């Protein structure tokens, strides 16, 4: 590794191989739990020093950040890149520093029976956290939450305020997920001193910062640490298997109640593990597959324990959807019925905030998904915010939950170090998302170089590990490799394949699409006899560009490509094709290159979420598909026709 990479990374290397500890239940309020959100303005400084290490040399975490130099106001959650006017900050690679003073309620700092936890929804890519100058956590990976128990620190003095400092490094190396490389260019005739670039092999801007909510929450010191729920169906009876992990005490009682949407207890149990049986259960159905989709029960867990200080109780309520998922040679089944994915690939991406979580944006996106008649999306190409997954549960939008394994194309990224990290990321992802009924499949990677020799062992291991972590869901990875050369395909449950006919080759030749796509489907199916999802297809269109007959980059061309794909999809979905996901839901930011016009324009909506012509085409198609394939009950069909914007 080039010395400069070490400089850019710094303490990143301390923490390789951190073991996964404890549960990662989403912090919810309950009679025993409180939360305090730390969204808003934080103090911020990027470390522009040559080795990017001044912050550590001068220990910026020791005293308030304003005392070690000038600071900016930085909104959280947000990427730091696009909120200012500074080109250097937009493209910054290295350590940035965030800081926030927090005043905690007195009870939190004085009641020793209270556990105070700091939770960071996501910090891209590597983070080190201090509270009042004391190191409390480190985390690698930009898309999954991490926590630190800060009770001792905040309960040790008379102060009820604390200073939270978070240093974040966005450098990507061959062993990070996603991987990248740092290239130093040293020709003094061409590049200024210290010039280096971050190269990546993925097609989205490497936004960085505190992208998701940061909060402090409490639990009692004896507390419900984790819950795992899996569900099944036996005729009309719903089966809810639960397992509960408790921390802080060996002696405790657990009571478990399952409540329906009216608040009625429909099943109950005791102890840390068991099965609840729900007669005449309302199943969790995807949007457009049932007249009451997305039915959620509430699993109320009540913990009581005796401690030296007296009786302690903890309460946690988990939404539970009862549903099954299965895969046959040619079908994807939800609740035993064939399910056809008609949806989108997304990105967490928007103007100004970059990858920062934003409620209005989230609600807008779900409005558009429902308008479109989309029943599914893939979290391309990394895990999305927990709040997104919760809405999928509530609206019945089915999710293929993807890891940040995107752009794995270098041989160095297939070594043991990368593999170990990939396994850990899958553990973190499954731990976080295992209880979401909307999640029906894990995707361990997108378009890796799965033809390289070590890829076979690598994917065999990652997929087997993921299945061991969660035997209740199928596993895939998304390929664009030729069916003969793909070393990972034997291990997946569903073949997810991306293609860009008449876009990245045969430019403008729409007439090749049907032949090439049909041939590809046949080859994959003949070789593997597994269901296939067209996990990406599309074409770029710059909103407002019109050309007829169609020409690349016009709205007409984007529509025409889609129409050609749909002809083949309509033939093959009767056989073994089980889904189609357009690339992409909306235009999104990428690195600068002559191939990209202020980002990738393959959205059917603009980055501002306004429809291009292709959005109307897809809307018509998705509602038609819903009416044709999704309704298993005649009463539903009439209701759907009523609600459908189209009359078929
Ligand atoms: C696919 C990638 C996706 C890209 C897309 C494209 O999976 O991330 O954005 O190509 O080129 O191969 O638009």
From TrEMBL:
Species in which this protein is naturally found = Ailuropoda melanoleuca (Giant panda)
- Which stretches make up the Glycosyl hydrolases family 2 sugar binding domain? 36-220
- Give the regulation of activity: Inhibited by L-aspartic acid.
Record localization: Lysosome
Please state the protein's primary subcellular location: other
Into which family does the record put it?
Answer: Belongs to the glycosyl hydrolase 2 family.
One GO biological-process annotation of the entry reads: carbohydrate metabolic process
What is the name attached to this protein's record?
Answer: Beta-glucuronidase
Q: Which gene encodes it?
A: GUSB
Q: Tell me where in this chain the Glycoside hydrolase family 2 catalytic domain is found.
A: 325-626
Write down the chemical reaction(s) this protein catalyses: a beta-D-glucuronoside + H2O = D-glucuronate + an alcohol
Spell out the molecular function terms from Gene Ontology. Answer: beta-glucuronidase activity; carbohydrate binding; signaling receptor binding
Q: What keywords sit in the KW lines?
A: Glycoprotein, Glycosidase, Hydrolase, Lysosome, Signal
Q: Hydrolase: present as a keyword of the record? A: yes
Which region is the signal sequence? 1-19
Subunit-structure text: Homotetramer.
Q: Where is the Glycoside hydrolase family 2 immunoglobulin-like beta-sandwich domain?
A: 222-323
Q: Which GO terms describe its cellular component?
A: extracellular space; lysosome
Enzyme class, first EC level, given as a word: hydrolase
Going by the entry's taxonomy, the superkingdom of the source organism is recorded as Eukaryota
Q: Which InterPro entries match?
A: Beta-gal/glucu_dom_sf, Galactose-bd-like_sf, GH, Glyco_hydro_2, Glyco_hydro_2_AS, Glyco_hydro_2_cat, Glyco_hydro_2_CS, Glyco_hydro_2_N
Q: List, alphabetically, the SUPFAM superfamilies matched.
A: (Trans)glycosidases, beta-Galactosidase/glucuronidase domain, Galactose-binding domain-like
